[in-house]
Write a structure and sequence with these properties.
- It is a single chain.
- The protein has 6 helices and 5 strands, in the order βαβαβαβαβαα.
- With about 140 residues, the chain is an alpha/beta fold.
- It has a single domain, classed as Ribose 5-phosphate Isomerase B, Chain: A, CATH 3.40.1400.
- It is globular and about 45 Å long.
- The mean pLDDT is about 100.
- Bound molecules: D-ribose.
- The site of D-ribose (RB5) has 8 residues, from helix 3.
């Protein structure tokens, strides 16, 4: 599985921690920035990540901003992207099983590092159930 991760300035520090965490776990993960605390625009980073997934360069994306909300709004404007803005483990599991979400968004000002790591682990490891959910997932892009 190939993963791409990015953030704006609000998510920069947590993004660096999650990036290192995934590298240490042996994931194939690429960092699309931002690379500092300097103010920047989250839609630019969301767009880069979503286009890379839609081009099949990556399977899944992780986007972090202050709340996760701006990133998820932008990501979900891309047909074929199913972004989930998460702050709990139950939703992380269910959005993989039921929505086949391919982008995970969260807020660095909303959840702490340990919770973020737990959510990332569950989200990356949980398989899509397909079955009765497939028809609904297809409806999202119609
Ligand atoms: C930046 O201050 C903040 O607006 C951004 O990180 C994000 O939370 C937007 O949704």
């Amino acid at each position: 599985m190939k993963i791409v991760i990015a953030s704006d300035h609000g998510g920069f520090e947590l993004k660096e921690k999650i990036y290192s965490y995934l590298l240490n776990k042996g994931y194939d993960v690429q960092n699309f920035g931002t690379d500092s605390n300097e103010s920047c625009d989250y839609p630019i980073f969301a767009r880069k990540v979503c286009n890379a997934i839609l081009n099949d360069d990556f399977n899944k994306g992780i986007l972090i901003c202050g709340t996760g909300i701006g990133m998820s709004i932008m990501a979900n404007r891309h047909k074929g992207i199913r972004a989930a803005c998460l702050s709990d483990k139950y939703s992380a599991e269910m959005t993989r099983k039921h929505n086949d979400s391919n982008v995970l968004c969260f807020g660095a000002r909303v959840i702490n590092e340990d919770t973020a790591k737990e959510i990332v682990d569950i989200w990356l490891e949980t398989k899509y159930e397909a079955g009765r959910h497939q028809k609904r997932v297809e409806m999202l892009d119609k």
